[in-house]
From TrEMBL:
Belongs to the universal stress protein A family. CDD domains: USP-like (cd00293). Residues 2-137, 152-293 form the UspA domain. This is Universal stress protein. PANTHER family: STRESS RESPONSE PROTEIN NHAX, UNIVERSAL STRESS PROTEIN UP12.
Amino acid sequence: MSIVVGFGPDTRSAGGVRFAGQLARTTGEAVVLCCVIYDSFASPALRDFNGIDDDWRRELTGMASRALAESRRALPDGVEVEEVVRTSRSVPDALEREGRDRGARLLVVGSASSGAFGRIGLGTTSDRLVHSARIPVGLAPSGYTPDGEPVRRLVVAIGPGPAPGPLAREVARTADWLGASVDIVSFAVRGTARTAMSAFTDAEVYEHWTQLARDAQKALAASLHDRAPDLEIGRHGVLNGDRWSEAVGSYPWRTGDVAVVGSSSHGGLAQVFLGSTGSRILRTSPLPVMILPRP
């Protein structure tokens, strides 16, 4: 088993590598640093016979070697590391294939360079992975630094819905792998009501939604307890705000937490599909996020 962390030769953020190192220190797993070179010259129709593409390949190979060296330096001491360079016309496909071939526990990527510091920004590769990968995906905020802390708690964010048996199975497995406790929470955003009637209607809708979310939390906690009787489980209720950043920020996050989002039911079987609510949580979480696939 291993943790595969993927990046390109021009990567500028080590947040994903640091998160992978934190996981490795927590679990004892090896880290595979996988640098993927996008091969735009794979098609014969695009080849240049003057040798410019060969020069460009050599330059990219050198960049990949430097990126791997920098990534290795970002890992904590004592972590088993393997370095690989892959070339592909599809970076997401290459990373997922690497993860599947190695039976990886998690495929980790960092925030896109366009993301705000301390938050997760999705780029072309990470966006594709969180909507199509068949293994769990982990993302780290820009500039993420775990300060030597192991992963201690999984903060599982859920909404209202039926008893989440498949999610419970994946959360229990992940908590056991990390030796972490589980906290279950729901986030809600309430708009500003303009009239007395809309305020009354919104209140009824919100109260009903809140009760359904609490019922779902209770069902998930019971299912987790059945699967892992010794697992420490907490329910944190429903946290709300006028904006997603306010709702998610009201949770008492601490170093060593990892947010967990289950795959949306809109996705296919045995794959990740990040729904709209999960996407908002991912973009506003101040700490790393795991997206677990539907079994």
